[in-house]
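Module 6 notes. Inverse folding takes a fixed backbone as the condition and produces residue identities as the prediction. Think of it as a translation problem where the source language is geometry and the target language is the twenty amino acids. Below is one complete input and output pair. Work through it position by position during the lab.
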């Protein structure tokens, strides 16, 4: 096996990668869409946006495989970032660089690999869009052009200097280990501590900018499989729910998994009640649009959602908002599932 070499400007390359602020962050819908499209374009089982760090490749998005990272020494993407042209491996079993690679001889049993390098705004390749199959392939020119365009989209997103959200502000103050402590390992969404920090900052920002604030609490159920005891199946279902939620929110909204099949969406700037209700209805539709294919068969997803809003000039605390969200969700569930309930407690009191 041939390990990938280091880039000639490796220190600068790592600095450029870190400057994106993307390492060890939650998954995001904008990258999930790209890997999902890439799988569809090439009809392959696995597609990923892979960030190549000093000693690992870390997946900002990976569609078709449940891993977060692998060692850089065994990575195909470590080779791809050394060139400005795509790396095409029609059959890794016949390629002396990869034939005895453990990712070839064992799971995920890579045979075909296509990787496009993604560069940082300040120069240097920092990531790839890669596609993997378990059988040999020779991609057509049309397929290569389509994947190249998707790689360009991923590059734009990694280098985006879009509106600075509360999430990017919070992450910029944290090291890699601190970031990992705020992410749920099953869903790769914010965990309770992470979403708590997001909510605190969103409240502060709303008060400073004289805006309102809104959040959506969500409980998912599986009507035809009410108690999937197998942890692997539970995690698979949760990951699919997480992906569907990400499709239904804006880039500056944040979603967290709080446990017991419950999620919270903290809506970003400019989220009034009307927008929050519209978002909740869109999420409900997104969640129950089709069953999840699992080893136990097709599992139906059903969601109950509760919307909590506070208008401009609100004075309630984070704890009050969370308590209202939980209470509203309990109220909604008592009236049946697959509905959106709008809490108006404080609005009526006003």
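Target side of the pair, the amino acids:
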């Amino acid at each position: 096996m041939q390990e990938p070499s280091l880039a000639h400007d490796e220190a600068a390359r790592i600095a450029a990668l870190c400057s994106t602020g993307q390492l060890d962050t939650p998954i995001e819908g904008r990258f999930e869409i790209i890997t999902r499209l890439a799988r569809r374009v090439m009809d392959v089982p696995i597609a990923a946006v892979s960030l190549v760090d000093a000693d690992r490749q870390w997946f900002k998005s990976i569609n078709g495989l449940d891993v977060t990272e692998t060692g850089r020494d065994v990575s195909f993407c470590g080779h791809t970032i050394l060139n400005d042209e795509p790396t095409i491996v029609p059959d890794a079993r016949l390629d002396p660089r990869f034939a005895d690679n453990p990712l070839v001889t064992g799971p995920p049993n890579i045979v075909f690999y296509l990787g496009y390098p993604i560069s940082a705004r300040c120069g240097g390749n920092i990531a790839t869009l890669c596609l993997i199959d378990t059988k040999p392939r020779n991609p057509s020119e049309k397929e290569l052009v389509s994947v190249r365009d998707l790689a360009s989209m991923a590059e734009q997103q990694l280098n985006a200097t879009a509106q600075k959200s509360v999430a990017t502000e919070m992450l910029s103050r944290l090291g890699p280990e601190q970031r990992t402590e705020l992410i749920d390992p099953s869903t790769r969404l914010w965990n309770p501590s992470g979403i708590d920090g997001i909510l605190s900052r969103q409240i502060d920002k709303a008060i400073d900018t004289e805006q309102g604030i809104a959040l959506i609490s969500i409980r998912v159920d599986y009507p035809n499989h009410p108690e999937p005891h197998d942890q692997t199946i539970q995690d698979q279902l949760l990951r699919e729910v997480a992906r569907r939620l990400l499709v239904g929110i804006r880039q500056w909204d944040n979603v967290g998994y709080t446990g017991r099949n419950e999620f919270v969406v903290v809506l970003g700037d400019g989220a009034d009640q009307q927008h929050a209700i519209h978002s909740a209805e869109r999420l409900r539709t997104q969640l129950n649009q089709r069953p999840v294919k699992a080893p136990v068969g097709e599992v139906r997803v059903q969601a109950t959602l509760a919307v909590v809003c506070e208008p401009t000039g609100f004075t309630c605390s984070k704890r009050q908002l969370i308590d209202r969200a939980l209470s509203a969700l309990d109220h909604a569930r008592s009236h049946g599932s697959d509905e959106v309930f709008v809490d108006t407690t404080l609005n009526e009191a006003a």
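Reference fact for the lab report: The first helix runs from residue 10 to 19.
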